[in-house]
């Protein structure tokens, strides 16, 4: 069953799915995990068959699950799964517990709004993409870092800061900061 995904995730899989599979298979093999690499290489890509723009509701036998897209943030196709009667929002990589976020295809200026969207759902439990489940206070506190990065992105784009100056002011470690503060301000 292919399932629900944001429409841009569908386009991303069509454009880069095979390349991503090969990249991760190679990555595992290079780390000495040949079996993991072989398993990844054998995966058959299955495209989603239900495309979502901003919101979709699923009835799972009497349990409502809301899929929500709050705009580009970690990627241009992030979606969260809100289970209102369980008080849970599965946030994926919009929330990170234990490591700074990756910015390779991110939209740092959209991340604060996406975190605001998660907070507005008022769920007490938020399982992140990585790490242990967190609560609303954790999400609220984490929001400050991407908000600072979004401001730095704007200052770099406006020419008020150089990328090097922005990296120095970033709340993230130096190995993460350059990718964060130099991301383009445009949105898909």
Briefly, what is this?
With about 190 residues, this protein is an alpha/beta fold.
Extract low-pLDDT stretches.
none
Total beta strands: 8
Biggest β-sheet strands, sense, barrel: 4 strands, antiparallel
- Number of helices, where a helix is a run of at least 4 consecutive DSSP H or I residues: 6
How does the overall form come out from the CA principal axes?
A: globular
Q: Rg, please? A: 18 Å
The CATH topology of the largest domain corresponds to Metallo-beta-lactamase, Chain A
**Oligomeric organization of the protein chains:** single chain
Helix content: 40-55%
Text of the CATH class of the largest domain: Alpha Beta
What structural class is derived from the secondary structure elements?
alpha/beta
Percent of sequence in beta strands: 15-25%
At the fourth level of CATH, the homologous superfamily of the largest domain is Ribonuclease Z/Hydroxyacylglutathione hydrolase-like
What number of domains?
Answer: 2
CATH architecture title of the largest domain: 4-Layer Sandwich
